[in-house]
Design goal:
This protein has 418 residues and is of the alpha+beta class. The chain is 51% helix and 11% strand. Strands 3-2-4-5-6-7 form a six-stranded mixed β-sheet. Strands 1-8 form a two-stranded antiparallel ribbon.
Length: 418
């Protein structure tokens, strides 16, 4: 078990998609670097290493850096083969004067969820911070039982200005769902020319009845956020941009279909954040480190915990729902085609949202007792991710990404039709 859990607001960060590691993290690093300089330099060179270099173009890392640092000239260098990196998402920012002399350099790692560390692993902290009196969910449950608390009440005790800040997080999530459902954009940006489907899914689902209608609505809500993220619009990490559609979809369903009051939604958001903070503290939420199980798996766990609580589940049942959601995402690879957070990422958000609701529903049929704890499955997820071949950890060299590359190459070799 790691050090004690940190603020849930390191799980929920509002910023530009399509990736918390590849756009939101570098965006934050660029702003901090520019603010640390006494005056604007003539040029900044941003060198991207590892996964940032391998899939940075598809994740718009270079465009994000240029946009963030304008009007300063920015040169972006992609170096996917640099050895001995402190983290798969490492970048170096170096400022130069007009004569080409180096003024300052900073090596920083984007570790997921928009969060950063120094090269030695020291966190570049968000402010304000909070530290919980527990190091994982088992300890959190024991603490809550001893003090007759719900999970969300533990967050209430520890976090400063919890409800106004969570209100801002939920408002941003809510707005993203609405924006995605109402978007007039037909084709998402990028070479895949992928069509948006949230709006049509939403309209068709409303014409159904019963369970098909509910499943269709949840699907539409998840697609709405995932498509906004893929378009580079503002989203909220939960715990990453690539998985940003899962939790908002579930909560928006409870708000609009189940008519759950705002306060209950915020309480569920607090509980989900606690589970996300535990994953961040004891494993990772970075696809480049541990595959998509660290992103979609984590988001599914958070959403399952939130849904279980909204269904009236006990502490044990909430923990079981979150554990089940992660357990059945173990081994999930991160292999986006062309580096875009589109295929398979958008549909994975939809599938994870549906799975979260299923896990939350099933746990109510039990007393919450089960053999594998949430903390156990997070540890296994972390080990599994480290054991994954690099090709399946957001390097665009394996899985669906490799199939797509071979398909493109075969098309290029094929003679044109007469």
């Amino acid at each position: 078990m790691s050090a004690n859990l940190q603020s849930i607001f390191e799980v929920y960060a509002v910023g530009a998609g399509p990736s918390s590691t590849h756009s939101m993290g570098p965006q934050r690093a660029a702003r901090l670097f520019a603010q640390s300089l006494p005056a604007a330099p003539a040029r900044i060179c941003a060198t991207l290493y590892g996964s940032l270099a391998a899939t940075g173009r598809g994740h718009w890392t270079d465009r994000t850096l240029v946009r963030t640092l304008q009007p300063i000239r920015v040169d972006v260098v992609f170096d996917a083969k640099a050895p001995n990196l402190p983290h798969p998402n490492t970048m170096k920012l170096e400022a130069f004067d007009a004569d080409g002399h180096s003024l300052k350099e900073w090596t920083v790692c984007s570790i997921g969820g928009g969060n950063l560390t120094e090269a030695d692993g020291t966190p570049v902290a968000f402010v304000p911070t909070a530290t919980y009196p527990v190091a994982g969910i088992d300890e959190a449950m024991n603490y809550c039982r001893a003090n007759d608390l719900a999970f969300w009440q533990l967050a209430e005790i520890v976090e400063t200005d919890l409800w106004p800040r969570l209100g801002d997080v939920w408002d941003a999530m809510d707005e993203t769902v609405k924006r995605g459902l109402g978007s007039k954009q037909i084709i998402l940006p990028g070479t895949l020319e992928l069509a948006r489907r949230a709006g049509t899914t939403w309209h068709r689902a409303r014409g159904l009845k019963g369970m098909p209608r509910d499943l269709g609505l949840v699907s539409a809500f998840a697609l709405a956020v995932a498509e906004e993220n893929a378009a580079g619009m503002q989203v909220v990490t939960a715990p990453s941009c690539g998985a940003a559609g899962v939790l908002p979809a579930v909560l928006y369903f409870f708000k609009t279909v189940r008519r759950m009051p705002r306060r209950k939604i915020l309480e569920a958001l607090a509980t989900a954040g606690l589970f996300g903070a535990s994953i961040r503290a004891n494993a990772t939420v970075s696809g480049a480190e541990a595959g998509c199980q660290a992103e979609i798996g984590s988001a599914c766990s958070m959403a399952a915990a939130a849904a279980a609580q909204l269904n009236g589940a006990s502490l044990n049942q909430i923990e079981y729902a979150a554990e089940m959601a992660m357990e059945h995402n173990l081994g999930l690879t991160c292999d986006p085609i062309e580096g875009y957070v589109q295929i398979p990422c958008i549909e994975r958000n939809m599938n994870a949202a549906l799975r979260a609701i299923e896990c939350a529903a099933f746990t109510l049929l039990t007393d919450g007792r089960h053999l594998v704890s949430f903390d156990d499955v997070v540890e296994v997820m972390n080990r599994t991710g480290r054991d994954l071949q690099a090709a399946y950890r957001e390097t665009a060299t394996g899985g669906l990404a490799q199939l797509w590359r071979r398909d493109i190459e075969s098309r290029l070799r094929k003679p044109a039709a007469p």
